[in-house]
Design a protein that fits this description.
The protein is α/β, with parallel strands linked by helices and about 500 residues long. It has helices at about 15-20, 30-45, 55-65, 70-80, 120-130, 150-165, 180-195, 210-220, 235-245, 260-265, 290-300, 355-370, 375-385, 390-415, 440-450, 480-495, and strands at about 55, 85, 90-95, 205, 225-230, 245-255, 255-260, 270-275, 305-310, 335-340, 350-355, 420-425, 430-435, 455, 470-475. The protein starts with 14 loop residues before the first helix and ends with a helix. Pfam families: Aminotran_1_2, GntR. GO terms for molecular function: transaminase activity.
Amino acid sequence: MEPIRRNSVPKASTLPDFVLRQFDQHSPQNDHRQLYSILQGGIRQSVLAAGTKLPPTRVLAQALGIARNTVVHVYEQLALEGYVQAGVGRGTYVAAIGPRLVDRSAAQPPSAGARTALLSRRGSQLVRDSKAAPLQWGAFTPGVPEVRMFPSQVWSRLQARMLRQHTPDQLTYATGPGDAGLRQAVSEYLQGTRGVVCSPEQVVITSGTQQSLHLVAQLLSDVGDTAWLEDPGYWGARSVFRAHGLQLEPVAVDAEGMAPTPEQLRQPPRLMFVSPSHQYPVGALMGHGRRQQLLDYAAVHSVWVVEDDYDSEFRYGTRPLPALQGLDAHGRVVYLGTFSKTLFPALRIAYLVLPPDLVDGFARALNELFREGQTLQQAVLARFLAEGHYASHIRRMRGVYSTRHDALIQAIQQEFGSQLPVIGGDAGLHLVLGLPPQVDDAAVAQAALRAGVTTRPLSLYYLRQPAPTKGLLLGYGAVREEEIGPSFAKLAQVVRGFL
């Protein structure tokens, strides 16, 4: 910054008038903010030229009828930001902030039609194809658990204990694959309930399944590689893989989940994304034969199998099937789990179970790209699992969700009998109400929203368009039993208008 030469200093006699014209003593804005904005704006717009001397703080304070300390603090802030220069015994002057690199008048705001050009091509595609729902609560929002029954008092007690006992490393940036206690607890839980074969050292804690998918895409694939996706399938995986430049190959789903054609099998992908224990969204359950076929194929062709085990704890009438990872003899499966469905989504804690050789690379990338934290919350969750509260909560919620599942099935039968099929209705937190192929399920969902009921069209989950199957995803996890019948009656009235 160039120093102000005293012989070129303009007079300050016009400055009080300039400020007085703009300063409003009745403004709701505080005096400090208002005076700072006036002076900073005048300097930036060159109304107050470089070298202009500002009045003494006492003089300006008296002229404006404000406290002198307010003016002093404004001058200090302007000096700190380089707008003015001050010296003991010589006053405060507007600094020379340098010429503009371009003519400001040449910069025009974009027209409404050109605003999309502000995004990159892949950014534009991501926004254009986004599928995230604007509402995440209410009947019948899919994928949302009952958070009102979370044992918050138990959690608060554990959290208070951890806060009293915390160590400095629990309040700074994370530097490894996650809290050791939580990795141990997750490993024990998965071995005991999901048939996952792992040690605590194979577990990496993340901030949600979406972050897990970002790590998978960045570390196990390159731009232009192919990813097989179940079709219909989880839109979140589709968005992440596409954002990382992968070529998406939709693989049709049959009664046992992902079913690649002979033509597809001749061109192996780099990644294969599957949800074998409860296919999302149609609920198919992959049998042992199909599982072994995919694992053998992955081993022969060096394919990474990404297993999404998002809500398999909740099955009604049958025991949960073991995870695909437990059958993997060649270290080709990356297992994804989350606490979003079993506890509450805002917790933002999930995990990866990795082949041993991948753990160090994933842990390093996690810290390099995301600067993880939440170590204290991870420690609280570790105690929550270790003391048995998690298992108790799962048992309780399994009963709650089973009752709500049955209530929704009953409501569908009362309204439609056997006219409309129920797809995938024996597990998880949602089911699919099938619709005739000529019905626009997206239009039905929009009409239902206007009627006060939230649902998602099945066609939204297809990469292939037009979607071969139409339907509505109905989440019952967050809907009280007594609300299910009346809420579905509203939806049924909307649906009948399209049949």
